Amino acid sequence: MAIVNKATPADVKALVDIFYSGFNDEFFEPLFPQSRECREFLEEAYGSWIKGKEGRQEAMVYVVRDEDGKTLSVASYWVIKPGDNGLQGWRSRWPAVPPGMSTEGLEEFFAGMESQHELGMGTKEHIYLEILATQESARRRGYGSMLLDIGKELADGMDYPLYLDAERDSKSLYIKAGYQELTDIAQSSPLSPLMRLRKSEREAEEEI
């Protein structure tokens, strides 16, 4: 039976493989090329998120392992707390961009998402699902939903809303998990902004 665990440093190389498996189309490949420099960039990112870093918002990285212990799916969440003044910029979350990767392309990619993120969430506390990916050979087994459930449990325990940016083909998965597309804000990214209300707001709506 597959189980969800917090990621450990031993997972990092597998997480990079999963990332490449999930984000390898004509949109993502120029941003995250399958090169030594980019692989090291992603390894540093995942390693840093798992270990934590002083002065940076908290990352929560979860994985799904199959019955053989193989790591097959990953979700990376960020916890934005009251007083944080919103999500920190991508340069605070990610490592320095190495030669061989497009700083300009990454800036445009992240800036578009961050603009609509700020419009949707402002400075209030929330949890941000930045990455959800599953190894191609392990898809359609419910692993993504398992990782979404962990995020919902985390958010409901803190009474925080959840936010993410979704590709068109994956929006139905998130809507099924209780997210709503934010259609009333200006979309500045090819990815669509979605939010799941905090637990207290959902309960208040149910009482009406």
Automatic annotation (TrEMBL):
<dbReference type="Pfam" id="PF00583">
    <property type="entry name" value="Acetyltransf_1"/>
</dbReference>
<dbReference type="GO" id="GO:0016747">
    <property type="term" value="F:acyltransferase activity, transferring groups other than amino-acyl groups"/>
</dbReference>
<dbReference type="InterPro" id="IPR016181">
    <property type="entry name" value="Acyl_CoA_acyltransferase"/>
</dbReference>
<dbReference type="InterPro" id="IPR000182">
    <property type="entry name" value="GNAT_dom"/>
</dbReference>
<dbReference type="InterPro" id="IPR052523">
    <property type="entry name" value="Trichothecene_AcTrans"/>
</dbReference>
<protein>
    <recommendedName>
        <fullName>N-acetyltransferase domain-containing protein</fullName>
    </recommendedName>
</protein>
<feature type="domain" description="N-acetyltransferase">
    <location>
        <begin position="2"/>
        <end position="200"/>
    </location>
</feature>
